[in-house]
Amino acid sequence: MDSRLVDDLKKLLGRQGVLHQPEDLLLYEYDGSVEVARPDCVVFPASTADVVETVRLAARHHVPLTGRGAGTGLSGGALAREGGIVISFARMNRIVEIDAENQRARVEPGVVNADLSLAVRHLGLHFAPDPSSQKACTIGGNVSENSGGPHTLAYGVTTNHVLALEVVLPSGELMRLGSAAVDPPGYDLTAVFVGSEGTFGLVTEITVRLTRLPETAKTLLAVYDLVDDATQTVAEITSRGITPAACEMMDGWTIRAVEEYVHAGFPLDAAAVLLIEVDGLVEVVEAEAEAVAEVCEKHRARSIRVARDDRERDLLWKGRKNAFGAVGRVSPSYYTQDGVIPRTKLPATLRRIGEISRKYNLAIGNVFHAGDGNLHPIILFDRRNTKQFQDAVSAADEIIEFCISTGGSITGEHGVGMEKDRLMPLLFSEADLEMMKRVRNVFNPTGLLNPGKIFPSSKGCGEIYVRPQPAQTVPSR
Amino acid sequence: MSLAASAISENLRAIVGPQQVITDSERLRRYLIGGKTPKAAVRPGSDQEVAEIVRLAFVEKLRLMPTGAGTKRDMNIPVGEYDLALDVGRLDQVVAYDPGDLTLSVAAGLPLSRLARALAEHQQFLPLAVPFLNRATVGGTIASGVDSPLRQFYGTVRDYVLGMEFVTGEGQLVKSGGRVVKNVSGYDLHKLMIGSFGSLGVITKVNFRTFPVVAATRALLALFASARDAVGMRHRIAQSSLRPLTLEIFSPVAAQLVFGDLVARGETDPRSAAAREISHWALVVSFAGAGRVLERYERELRQFAGGGQVALLDETSTAGMLARMPEFSPLALASSPAAVVLRMNVLPGEMVQALGETAFAAANQEVRWAAIARGVGAIDFALLPGRDDEALGRAGRVIDNVFEAFERRAGSVTIRWCADMWKETTRARKTSRNDLEVMRRIKHTFDPSRVFAPDPLAAWT
Description:
Chain A is an alpha+beta fold. Chain A has helices at 3-13, 22-25, 48-60, 113-120, 139-145, 152-155, 189-193, 227-239, 252-262, 282-298, 310-321, 323-330, 346-360, 386-405, 424-427, 430-443; strands at residues 18-19, 41-43, 65-68, 85-88, 95-99, 104-107, 125-126, 162-168, 174-178, 202-209, 211-212, 216-224, 246-251, 272-280, 303-306, 333-336, 364-368, 377-381.
């Protein structure tokens, strides 16, 4: 990178605000995915004005620019695929305003997801989207990826909670989209911006809707001897019209990894567990918990345990939310997928994943948002073994192809990024992708903002894709 | 251009068949919008036919107006001269319905009433209680962005549309989103279609998540001497653990318009003196659940009503009330030949002030008015003037006052519904928003030759 650009960035942001030595850049080669890409420089703006000036400098030098929150993303969205500047929002982490009366908050993009909920808890409110990485991931990253989480089953994903954005376009234009009041007239630019994976602009402020905390919640742990029984339970809960706040599943392999790590009391000999939460008014929760338990029993749940208090509930959730960390302890490398299927196809899909696991002789754990049909098969491999790595990628592709064949999608919440760009043609026609590109060009006409993401490169999707191998294994989520 | 005789007309017939091209002036009257009739109407029978028609329009530089049942023609969207009505009425199929997955894919011309019947067979529904519910189509509902009182609980279309297919101004059939309830693959282009009035594309197919029918539904009616008191109850509900299905506040005239005759016919609870007395501001809140849940709602809502008179409606009266509530704007238009309905979107904490200032402006100009405020902060404020020039002038001054007030207030105001006479005089207004240029670029991206006649962006300069 041109040293004059680095000097200009240092003048703008101070010496502490710019990293460009190779050893400093190492951390920024990674996010939570298996992808790797090293930036030429990482900058840390402290204000929107800093962001505008940084973007202008990058544009003047024709250097790619990629936004980054906490780097917990699972599709390479925050990696500088074509080098250039990574713009980290770590310093822009203020909660600007909490408006309890209107149940709104204005935050900078670097605010950690869980910190916002903590800050409004005393008001009886929370920020509903709760990715498993919520203790680290930032709201700016959530907006870019349209993140989900276990409780999005009832509460919706990030886009359902974002009302307005302040954004800096790659041209350096500062723009406000949407409004704190509902239904701003004109085209819904906010809705199309959320989930654009950092390819439209850099978000510098977010106005979100806050949600009232439920009066009470009940968390049930249903234990099964057969995976099929667990998946049948989920399908019936959905088709009966019961909408739990969350409905998560872990298979036996994952349960054992988690239990050794978290000691939440998950049964080591089970084939699967469902973690189902119902929340709301006391009267509603009692009735729904009974209905859920009835469905679990009908499908031969071996036992149904209701968390007795908040401590036990937190422990069960800790087990679920740390599942990926637990896997990291038992396997040198793993690859997490994010396919989505219609919920009635859960039993068939898990059977298919079992077949794929046997075909490649690779262990595949399953821990996922069953109520949404959003799968997270975790394929274990050893990166030092080239064949295993290739097999893991092939197994993942077969799983995704099966998801698509059921009418599903290649990603439910992790994003396309640089991980699934080559799969996009399996889901979208050339005309669909061309239109998406043209809309990206409205915001990002030079393509210098977060290049190499979402859209397949000129290579056909049928070609074998070999990922660069990471220098070391990084635990992902 | 004389379409009937032209090669274009022949081309249209070649695409859709001779029966589906309408050029007879009598039959074209149903496509009248803002005093303008098209030279022809064409009724495609498939997505591909829609795409071919738009491609023809693109090549021949024709201007198209996508239409469904025509129930939005009193909405205030700038439409210039146009050549061709593209009537999607024949695209009326339920394309796929998976009750077990609670997902649905339908063609855009499907009437909501038929859709509701298909869903009801499986005890499901869509929370689209929108104006002209008996006639409106899926496509028109999405394209116009009309909202539903049920948004209090279920959110808006933006929250439960999973994907769409549409034809762009170049005649490309494009899809975005999908048919599963959680999906982040690709950009959510379909969300740009919501409320775009067909200015970006012709919607051909819409995928929804559906919802299970709720248990017994009841409504509570509370009457207050002032808007402030009614909104006070709204705030107390918002700060409680209750999660009502709908929450609407009616001005006295709005209450008369929407449920006055229900009361007169004795369809609300006849034992309730309160229900008969609607010269006050009324808050109607509906909720659902089994026995103990309903008791809890009733108990707490009665507390939240404070000094207001309260009536609990039985299930039949509740259903009647819920069916009438979405019809406020049509009822307002029917009640006055020169009606105009302003949509004001404000933060809930500013509802009282917005209502108060607007009512003051209307009273000052001696213009009769009626308003419904949704609990989320969306207010429909109807001005109901006489149709003489002097009365129209006074109503025009009220509108100017309201727009000026919103230059200083967060939120937005638009003329949402109006009699045709207002469409002629409604002028583009200045805006301080700086995303207008991006919106124009979006329009150009979807429709570079301006094939689609509606132009919602023309409301601003």
